[in-house]
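#struct-help
A.M.: can someone run this one for me? Single chain, 354 residues.
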Amino acid sequence: MEYRLGGAAAGPLGVLTGLSSRTWGGAAKPAPLGFPYRPQEALVTRPASAAAPTLCIGEALVDVVRRADGSVAEHPGGSPANVAIGVARLGHPVAFATRFGTDRYGAAMADHLRRDGVVLVNEPDAERTSSAQATIGPDGAASYVFDVLWELPPIDLTGVTHLHTGSIGAVLQPGGAVVEEALRVGRAAATVSYDPNARPALMGEREPARRHIEQLIGWSDVVKASDEDIAWLYPDRSVDEVLEHWGRLGAALALATQGGSGVTVHVPSAGSTRQLGVAPVEVVDTVGAGDSFMSGLISGLLDLGLLGGPQARERLAVATPEQLRPAVDRALACARITVSRAGANPPTRGELPT
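D.P.: on it. Structure tokens below:
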């Protein structure tokens, strides 16, 4: 499917994944884009149960930026792909269920994932790899064309103890239906984290989108969104009110990231909503900051034994804000490091403050 924005036809995807104007205590700077292309090697693919107890599900696509001077830059994107890489860099075995092709973009995407130890559940077999293309005119204005294919085969969840999803892959059909079924069925044996990562033009009218997202939240233990997501989904409600609402829907931990202002954390079992700040940092760009936060949060909760199966869910449900604080601190540290350098480049465990 091809979606055009900025031209005569306006389609359902309204932002270029991975490009952001958000700042963390300073002006965002343009980031150099690009990643190396290497010939595709034989991919290691296997059932999720044989790969890792943590499984991310969602889109992997390539962002292509064409500038007025004729230069073209490409880099891998897709929120769930970024989260999978971030969790892997923090030392956790991760499998990734996605769909892309065997073309040049797909080869580069596979190499990008493989270098960090992310194991692909599916053989690349799509007609082509999804992409988001932005053409920058002489005046700096951008027009966008999205070429998105999103279909998934049924996913074997045997042995999976934590599931993560979000963004385009959780809503765009027909693949979205497979993701929904994975969450509905998988939560019997696995904890679930979800990042709506709202894309208003993709999701259509606000009310149906909100109902859909709230259904997914009802199957999730941990929900993280940005304040911008919340402002679009609930224009007449405060961040605190929305997080409390999500807690009533079933989330044991609900968070709203707010760029350089930090994060609001709601713990329903304690009736607690707190704002946590983040230390100032010189911002290079904010590409992948939210995904890096999510990776750090998942990693921290896994280390605390608060994600990873039904017993972990029980512990999470009664965890205090003080017990959850180390995981949130790790999430903030990961995001802070990511915005300090170009692109969606999350930290390794060794780069985290001790």
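A.M.: thanks! The first helix runs from residue 48 to 51.
D.P.: also worth noting: Confidence is low (pLDDT under 50) at residues 1-51.
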